[in-house]
Amino acid sequence: MLFPVFWLSASGLAHKTAVFSSLLGTLLIIWTPLILVGTPVTAEQLSKPLLFPFMMAGFSFAVVSMTAHLDRQRLAVLAKDVQLRAALDASRRRERLLSTVLDAIPVGVVVVDAQGHHQLMNSTQQTFQAFAVPDHVEDPAEKDLLLFGSDKVTPLGAEARPVRRAVLGESFTNCDLWVGSGDRARAFSTTARTMKDADGNYDGAVISFHDITDMLAALAAKDDFVARVSHEFRTPLSSILGYASLIMDDGQDLPSEVTSSLAVIERNAERLLGLVNDLLATKSMIFQPAPTDFAQLVAHSLAAAAPSATANAVTLHSSVEGPMPVVVDAGRIGQVLDNLISNAIKYSPDGGAVTVRAWTEGEELLCTIQDTGIGMNNTEQAEAFTKFFRADLALKRAIPGLGLGLLITKSIVEMHGGAISLQSAPGAGTTIRFTLPQSVSTHGVLHDR
After folding, report:
1. Could you tell me the CATH superfamily of domain 284-447?
2. What percent of the chain has pLDDT over 70?
3. How many angstroms separate the CA atoms of 270 and 407, rounded?
4. Model-level pTM?
């Protein structure tokens, strides 16, 4: 009897019917011989074998329960399989999309795992890496690739190479190097970011390579052009200033309108010469530090800026208490103060206030120049210290300038070992802060800024 009961119960048909049919079928098999004998059947004869049908019913119930549980598990596995297949398809689509995007961008990308093995290299990077492969070498190791420093001559050591640095867990931005030699040499700017696993341990890195060869060539051509034009302007301007000064010194009997016109010529020629000097100053600056009173430098710059502040209805304030001894190049730091104070006045065309503060913290001198002028947005702040940058509102209001003052200022401050930063908001003014070490003991020259 076990086999038909098991088959019926495990068939997956109606579960309750299977249990009832097992019970009823077993009773009929047991009672049928008693009934067919032909003699009267007593209740005792019918009840005596009832234990066995109920055992069959229990067995049927157990098989039905086990079958139902297995069916639920099977359906769950099938559903999970559908989900996994869908996730796998989605993952493959994302992988194809990522691969297509990486191959489409003009930036080389390399991905390495925790052991430093290459996991991914897009087609752009494969092209870039071809420049670094030495002649007659089919499969070079990393140490064999032709990588050089910014001078295009000094080979990069193993620990200085971008991929090796990233494998060692270092993150960096805009690290410049040259790849290849001779006519095939290309300049690249490299950036690396490390990856971490769930426990915060190093789990690989992504390194990008951006070809900047054409940009460097364009910058060099632009700097050469600016230097040549500036030098050509300087000689005639000096002559104009010299002769205008001679005429004004010797022409005591000249009519007043002629004297006034000569003053205009001299003033504008001086302004042009100042702009030319600014252009040349971005190429090379020499500084010679010496003991100086910073408070006195601030006082001189404020005194020089007073006429333009009056013309712009700007009030000048100073919170600098002297003496403040520092060892700097007084002329260059005076140029920094002149640039920042004149900018603060110039970019406050509707009047306002300019406040200069200075104090010392430890071995550093800190100075801020704050104005209440037109201010700058976030994008303009990010570009403020770049060459020839002018804010949109300054251009709209025709505020004069070449966009060199902040660049020169930043170069001078950094040349002294200091730092400069800017905070601003449209319509709320600008605050520029710079720091200087109180002692600068070396003489130096800053080139190619």
Report:
1. Histidine kinase-like ATPase, C-terminal domain (3.30.565.10)
2. 82
3. 21
4. 0.48
